[in-house]
Fold:
Amino acid sequence: MRRRRVIAGVAALLFAPRQSAAQQAAAKIPRVGWVWAGRSAGNPFEVTGFRQGLREFGYIEGQNILIEYRFGEGRRDRIADLVSELVERQLDVLVAIGDLTVRAVKNATTTIPIVGLAGDPVGLGLVASLARPGGNVTGFMLHEYSIGVKWLELLKEISPNVTRVAVLRDSANPAQTAQFGVIQAIAPMLRVEVIPVDMRDAGEIEQAVETFARSPHGGLIVVAGGASIRYRDLIVTLAAQRKLPAVYWERFFVVAGGLTSYGVHTIDQYRRAAGYVDRILKGEKPADLPVQAPTKYEIVINLKVAKALGLDVPSSLLARADEVIE
Structure:
């Protein structure tokens, strides 16, 4: 009996360190939170790009990294609750998408590192500066204000007869107001009259577009932001019904039946965000990681919609397009 107890004790001593090491290894698997006001289905590019980036850095979801996803399903009023859920989980990094979401996460925690994707991080007060963010927030700009020039130029190129442009934007959003300002500043050079249309609710959008469409030679520009995502189907439908050529800020509008878009290459931007998550998990601080501007843009054209609008897309524009939907 004594000999058996000795053998059992030795075995326990030999096994204990291994068990402890295994438990420690499991505990070291990083946990990342992902929160966005958008829908979990219908626009997979954000998640797809992020997962691609993680794989490039050697992370396999469910094996050596755990991701907790939260989607607002298009309801901004859910953001605060979703953020609270993730903050309570004491995650290693939080990835937040969109101006309101990044602001909500920043207000909820000063300790968890945040990789945010927003329109104007400095203007929104999310970081001290692009070069030296300070605090616990860093990340990527979803667009630059100068892109407004490209939107108006693209609209004139694809539909030269346009002389009036309704710009759909959320006046309560500083980034969208700035985008509108850029378009307004360049409009006289292109001999275009610019009319602002607010996107506070569906009824306001529908009435404003209907009124605008009663006069000839009109076109639409839809600026970047969450409001346009919420009302995407309505805006695309109104543009088609009223025969208004429209330029959008993101590819998924064109896939949904819009005419053309010029904007940030979505997958690439979220892939780069995964790189910042990797650097933070390896010990770098958000305060020392500069906020980065977009580096890749894409033009997408829907030829079927162009034909329905009676537009002959210039061959030079088709040659420059990154994607042509036929």
Summary: Residues 24-142+266-294 form a domain with the Rossmann fold fold (CATH 3.40.50.2300).
